[in-house]
Amino acid sequence: MSPRSLRMLSLLGGALLVALGLAWSLQGAGLLLGSVMSDQREWLVAGLVIILIGLRLIRSGLSSTP
Q1: Domain ranges in the chain?
Q2: Is 21 exposed, middle or buried (0-12, 13-18, 19+ CB in 10 A)?
Q3: Separation between Cα atoms, residue 44 and residue 38, nearest integer Å
Q4: pLDDT tens for each residue of 37-60
Q5: What whole-number distance in Å separates Cα of residue 42 and Cα of residue 14?
Q6: Residue 64 carries which DSSP code?
Q7: Is the confidence at residue 65, as pLDDT, over 80?
Q8: What residues have CB less than 8 Å from 31, skipping those under 6 apart?
Q9: Where are the alpha helices (DSSP H) in 1-66?
């Protein structure tokens, strides 16, 4: 894969992880209802960890030179 492709993959993957982590965090906090994950602290923590991983991927994608 070319460096540009890896950079794009890192950015897209990071954005996907941030979105997923946000959904999990909102469910875990009880702000997004309708799931067995709602109001469960484990999902709040897991979501926050996934958000941090996604942000790290985005950061590495933005800081890499094409």
Answers
A1: 3-63
A2: buried
A3: 9
A4: 999 999 999 999 999 999 999 999
A5: 21
A6: S
A7: no
A8: none
A9: 3-28, 41-63
Tokens of 52: 């941090």
Per DSSP, the three-state class of 35 is: coil
> Considering the entire predicted model, what is its pTM?
0.90
Q: How many residues does the chain have?
A: 66
* Residues 46-59: b if buried by 16+ CB within 10 A, e if exposed: bbbebbeebeebbe
Torsion of CA 10, 15, 65, 1, to 10 degrees: 30
Q: Does the pLDDT at position 64 exceed 80? A: no
CA nearest neighbour of 18 among 46, 57, 51: 51
